[in-house]
Design goal:
It is a single chain. By secondary structure, the protein is mostly helical. It has helices at 2-5, 10-28, 38-64, 69-104, 110-118, 128-154, 156-163. Helix content is 76%, strand content 0%. The longest helix has 36 residues, at 69-104.
Length: 172
């Protein structure tokens, strides 16, 4: 791990991780219907942040929590990660579903809307003009999802601030 070889305090790795995540998600919220080549760069930035965060937290936890509490800390970490994923997924799904329902209810029938909400592959059964509108609505919904996830990523700043120590710890 970079923090042990370079003697960089792990908190700096976590700060870099949440900055990369916020920047990556914020950039992803700007894409439109046409996927520009920059999207792959945005995803790479986000991936760097997620990788730094997940890897660092998993490796650092046993170095910070000792003895009999170590297994509890690792279990809590796994549970909180899963819980956060479930909460994030439900929020993102609701954002997209409500956006699609609101914007497409005047464009397609309720039966078509139900089919589209069950599987996005149903878009291919619509006329080309409707497909264009549906894709635009889905792109706007995706952008809204990413904006909400940017707020969640920014909440990491609070967690990192709580972990900040006056005398910065260096993992050997």
């Amino acid at each position: 791990m970079a923090s042990s070889k370079l003697r960089v305090p792990p908190i700096f790795i976590l700060v870099a991780a949440f900055v990369f995540q916020i920047v990556g998600i914020a950039l992803l919220s700007t894409i439109s219907v046409d996927t520009p080549p920059q999207t792959y760069g945005y995803e790479a930035i986000l991936g760097i942040g997620i990788g730094l965060n997940f890897g660092s937290v998993i490796i650092l936890t046993p170095n910070i929590v000792r003895g009999k509490d170590q297994s509890v800390a690792m279990g809590a970490l796994s549970q909180l990660r899963a819980l956060g994923g479930v909460i994030g997924l439900s929020i993102a799904s609701n954002i997209l579903s409500n956006h699609v329902k609101g914007d497409l209810s005047a464009v397609i029938s309720p039966q078509q809307l139900d089919l589209l909400l069950q599987t996005s592959a149903a878009i291919n059964s619509f006329p080309i003009e409707a497909q264009t509108v549906i894709r635009s609505v889905y792109a706007d919904g995706y952008s809204l999802q990413m904006k909400a996830m940017t707020a969640f990523a920014a909440a990491q700043a609070i967690a990192v601030a709580i972990m900040w120590e006056k005398k910065l710890r260096r993992v050997a």
